[in-house]
TrEMBL record:
Positions of the HTH lysR-type domain: 1-60
Pfam families linked to this entry: HTH_1, LysR_substrate
Keyword annotations: DNA-binding, Transcription, Transcription regulation
Similarity comment text for this entry: Belongs to the LysR transcriptional regulatory family.
Molecular-function GO terms, alphabetical: DNA binding; DNA-binding transcription factor activity
Keyword Ribonucleoprotein: no
Coiled coil: none
Residues annotated as transmembrane: none
InterPro entries: HTH-type_LysR_regulators (IPR050950), LysR_HTH_N (IPR000847), LysR_subst-bd (IPR005119), WH-like_DNA-bd_sf (IPR036388), WH_DNA-bd_sf (IPR036390)
Name of the featured protein: LysR family transcriptional regulator
Organism for this UniProt entry: Oscillibacter hominis
Length: 290
């Protein structure tokens, strides 16, 4: 039994899918399946029910019993690494933050020359919560908060929401939500508050496209007359090459708040990370509205 097999098993439990688990671990699905089969062979028990055409993986009784043992095994492995090697500071951020502000944050942290290696990941807010709660991450930057008895969520950035569109769009700002054609909207679920605001103005499922990845939305907007509402920092980053335009919104949605997730007590390196984040956030220019 090795750490790779344990990580494979826990990733499947976390995602409920072999395909998604393989994607998150950067493995092919056959490699992931082989690790699971090897683990089951070593234990002499079937851990997962994975039938043909079955969309979600289910645990056997043995699999349910093995989950807490696997989590303990992984914690012990992490602790042993801290004893025998350079400590690792593990950080995650959402995709939009990872492609805009976080590279500058990570670079600033690395330049400090601290006695730790920096391990960074890109996760959805819900995934980040689970990873921090399980001790798999030391810190994470997210936008959608959840209830947790163990995880602290500290607001670290509040930014306005703006409208983003391509050169083929005839929209002109400032623009009111009532003047936006819902059938040309690209919806991204930034926060729970944003989703409520969007449904109020445009209704349910009237948008032309829904996405969870800002880097996918950018080329779509650039080559069409579609529009999307995004945080100011994402708009500044997306419009840097001049293919997209930022328009001011009248009656905009609530500001997006970014939170830092940590366990108590936080890692001693968290304060340095937070300093770099606030410094980078302070350097974000205001959107240049058309």
């Amino acid at each position: 039994m090795n750490i790779q097999a344990i990580e494979a098993f826990l990733a499947v439990i976390r995602t409920g899918s072999l395909t998604e688990a393989a994607r998150q671990l950067h493995l092919t699905q056959p490699t992931l399946s082989h690790r699971l089969q090897t683990l089951e062979a070593e234990l002499g028990a079937t851990l997962l029910i994975r039938g043909k055409g079955q969309r979600r993986i289910e645990l056997t009784d043995a699999g349910r019993d093995f989950v807490p043992l696997a989590e303990s095994w992984r914690r012990l492995w992490s602790e042993s690494l801290r004893i025998t090697s350079r400590p690792v500071f593990r950080v995650a951020a959402t995709q939009t933050l990872s492609s805009s502000i976080m590279p500058e944050v990570y670079a600033g942290f690395a330049r400090r020359g601290l006695p730790t290696a920096l391990d960074v990941k890109t996760l959805h807010s819900q995934e980040a919560y689970g990873a921090v709660e399980q001790g798999e991450l030391d810190a994470a930057f997210i936008a959608n908060t959840m209830f947790s008895k163990r995880v602290s969520a500290i607001p670290v950035l509040e930014e306005r929401m703006v409208l983003l569109c391509g050169g083929k769009s005839t929209l002109d700002g400032p623009v009111r939500p009532a003047d936006l054609p819902a059938e040309k909207g690209v919806f991204l679920s930034w926060t729970h508050e944003f989703t409520h605001w969007y449904e109020y103005w445009f209704g349910l499922n009237r948008h032309v496209l829904e996405a969870d990845n800002m880097s996918l939305v950018e080329p779509i907007l650039a080559s069409s007359d579609l529009w999307a509402i995004v945080p100011a920092s994402a708009a500044v980053w997306a419009s840097r090459e001049g293919r997209l335009r930022c328009l001011e919104l009248v009656q905009p949605p609530p500001d997006r708040v970014v939170y830092l997730l940590t366990l108590e007590p936080p890692s001693p390196y968290t304060s340095y990370l937070l300093e770099e984040f606030r410094a980078a956030a302070g350097r974000i220019p205001a959107p240049a509205f058309d």
